[in-house]
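Extended Data, panel c. Modelled sequence:
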Amino acid sequence: MRVTIRALLAYAAIAAAPVASLAATPAQERQFVDTYRKAYERRDHGTLVSLLYTDGANAQALVFYKSMLGAEMGGRIASIELADLTPEDKVRSERAQGLDGRTCRLVLPATKKLVVRTATKDRNGSSSATSEVFVGERGGRLWILVPAAAK
């Protein structure tokens, strides 16, 4: 009986190992957030765009995401975090979207969301904004997810 239980536990550990290795480490998450913050503060649009997962991306969605990344540059990042997905976020990330007459979905499963709060102050006053984008993992790297044609 003990041998059977040990064997089952060993098989379960082996089966779970690939799933456990898919999760980004805290160090990878910090590096992703730091890269985003530094690129934003330097107004380095090229680095921000390099964080997009573009394989199979819908062309219209890609143009939108690229422009969105540069739209808020110039403000100050008040806070930035890589947050866990809520159950509602999970549903939204899996939902099909209609873009350019085509049905699109995120090509990778969302594992987190990047939440960026910005503040802008100039001679006309001050404003703040919050943006959220879904983040997923591929090849040991975190990416901002862009919708692609649904399969």
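Confidence is low (pLDDT under 50) at residues 1-21. This feature is highlighted in the accompanying rendering.
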